[in-house]
Amino acid sequence: xxxxxxxxxFGRTRSQRNALIKSLALSLIxxxxxxxxxxxxxxxxxYVEKLVTKAKEGTLASQRLVxxxxxxxxxxxxxxxxxxxxxxxxxxxxxxxxxxxxKRLSDAAPMALVEFV
Length: 117
Hints:
By secondary structure, the protein is of the alpha+beta class. It has a single domain (14-116), classed as CATH 3.90.1030.10. It is built from four helices and three strands, in the order αβαααββ. It has helices spanning 14-31, 38-57, 60-69, 74-87, and strands at residues 33-37, 96-101, 111-116. Strands 1-3-2 form a three-stranded antiparallel β-sheet, covered by helices on one side.
């Protein structure tokens, strides 16, 4: 039984899963919204929420942490820190939304749209 096993594995090793989540987070930061499967969307949304919360702090340590979590992509980290995080300074959470979309035609996978609120 899978009691208390909340991590979705996506049929990948841990390093592949981490790379997938980080690349989805980078795409969300760059484009503002991404279309992916529902399971991946539900995994990436909390990851990005925690990054935005950390980016709101504005300290050097939090900036370095955000940059390291985004695979040391400084351009995207600066966009998150300078543009996205200040929009949510009065908001305590819920920076992203996951909207369900129709199933994908090829394999009927449930799809979802992740975007910043």
